[in-house]
Amino acid sequence: MKRYTMILALVLLLSTIAAAQEYTYISDSNILTLSLVNQDPDPAIAGNVVELRIGVENYGGQGTVEQELELVLEYPFEKIAGESYVKSVGRLQGFQVDEDQKIIKFKIRTDRDATEGNYEFDILMYTAGEKDTAAIKKTLSIDLTNRESAEVIYINKVKLVPGQQTPMEFTINNVGNAPLRDMSFSWSNADDIVLPVGSSDTKYVKYLGIGEKTTISYDVIADTNADPGLYKLELSLTYEDPVSGQLTSITNNAGVYVGGETDFDIAFSETSAGETSFSIANIGSNPASSVSIMIPKQPGWKTTGSNAVIIGNLNKGDYTVASFKLEQSSGVDATMPSREEMAKLSDEERAELRAKRPETTDGTIKINIAYTDTMGNREVVEKTVPLEASMLNSTSMSARFARGGAEQTSLTSSLTTIGYWAAGIILLIFLYRYWRRGGFRTVKKKIERKLRR
């Protein structure tokens, strides 16, 4: 038992001697260490600035001379203009550790296109002015993540017709450096002028990769009683931020115009006193301003007098009447060349023109309706209107009577002219024959005898 006690005492003695020798060795040296105390933010975010706090400690009992600390950067780390990456540490005292350590701060920027991960960088420490001879190198690392970012970049419809169901698409683009997950998108507008049809206004997207985009579709309808004008849509996109773990919401506004074009119905009304009347109704969802009705040039029909009637404004549901002096033409196209011009053409050219020429009307007439829509645009709507048989006969007879009257007038004028010429010739012949027979001398002698008396 006494033997074991002596052995244990010897071991303790040797340990004490070794510790004393080690303490003497540390006390006579300086042992410098470098570490990353912390970073702000943690993790670093791609494309943003991050501050690194480097801790410098001396575990030896001997102090140091002036020291310098240098930060060596490689991708994905970038220097910031005006920032120094060689900084003075100063002198370190013996056993300057833990709370007494020196903290040196550096600010760097991370590349915006860097992917998420752990990235290393090097720290050098050396006696001031002796970088190449006595450098201490330490490799440290930080975590880098990407911040999610998205935007609604496109709405495919900027104009809605009241009461008309219209497909509307919103395109969402991932403009960040991280995938987007569990997104929810919704929109709304004041007074519910525009509403989705057949679905709610909220839709979900499970995943959207970096640089990708997705399209969210709705069927929408604008209130039939909405006043024409621009309406604001409030857009909201929500997703989880991987940095903070909290929900991030993006809200912005977009405008849609409610209004625009309208439509018309036009029908033959009557023919009376040489005029043909048409009824025009605004059957669309928007009012029309400065409405004009025009009959364009067309084969089979012609107007005498004006071919356009201005009827002013037509609200939705209103109608009015426009009248024209209209008659059927001979069927010859007014744009065809004259007879003299036709004579100069080749046989092939004349045949081609005759083939293109419409010869008769098909019982319909084309009418143009010009108007200004609620957006201030001038629009023209062309309608083909069928005409009743009585109207066709009436205009045809009117045309024939007009042509017949013109022919009769021309014939009467010609006969009158011929009569004047014939009477003049007969008078000249009579006077000539009277003179040959001496009739003028006899008359002269009778006049002289009467004067002597």
CATH class of the largest domain: Mainly Beta
Largest sheet: 5 strands, mixed
SS class: alpha+beta
**Bulk shape:** elongated
Q: Give the tally of structural domains.
A: 4
The second-level CATH architecture of the largest domain is Sandwich
Tally of individual helices: 5
Low-confidence stretches: 16-25, 395-412
What does this protein look like?
It is built from five helices and 27 strands. The chain is α+β, with helices and mostly antiparallel strands and 453 residues long. It folds into four domains: 1-26; 31-145, Sandwich (Immunoglobulin-like), CATH 2.60.40; 150-258, Sandwich (Immunoglobulin-like); 269-387, Immunoglobulin-like, CATH 2.60.40. The strands form seven sheets. The protein has a five-stranded mixed beta sheet, with no helix packed on it. Strands 11-18-17-13-15 form a five-stranded mixed beta sheet, with no helix packed on it. It has a four-stranded antiparallel beta sheet with strand order 1-3-7-5, with no helix packed on it. Strand 19 and strand 20 form a beta hairpin. It starts with a helix and ends with a helix. Residues 16-25 and 395-412 have low confidence and may be disordered.
Give me some keywords for this one.
453 residues, alpha+beta, Immunoglobulin-like, five-stranded mixed beta sheet, 5 helices
Secondary-structure topology with pairs:
Layout: H1 2-27, E1 32-40, E2 44-45, E3 49-58, E4 67-72, E5 77-78, E6 86-90, E7 102-110, E8 117-127, E9 136-145, E10 150-155, E11 159-160, E12 166-174, E13 180-188, E14 194-196, E15 202-208, E16 213-222, E17 229-240, E18 247-258, E19 264-272, E20 275-282, E21 288-294, E22 301-303, E23 308-314, E24 319-324, E25 326-328, H2 339-344, H3 347-356, E26 364-372, E27 378-386, H4 389-436, H5 439-452
Parallel strand pairs: 2-9, 11-18
Antiparallel strand pairs: 1-3, 3-7, 4-6, 4-8, 5-7, 8-9, 10-12, 12-16, 13-15, 13-17, 14-16, 17-18, 19-20, 20-24, 21-23, 21-26, 22-25, 26-27
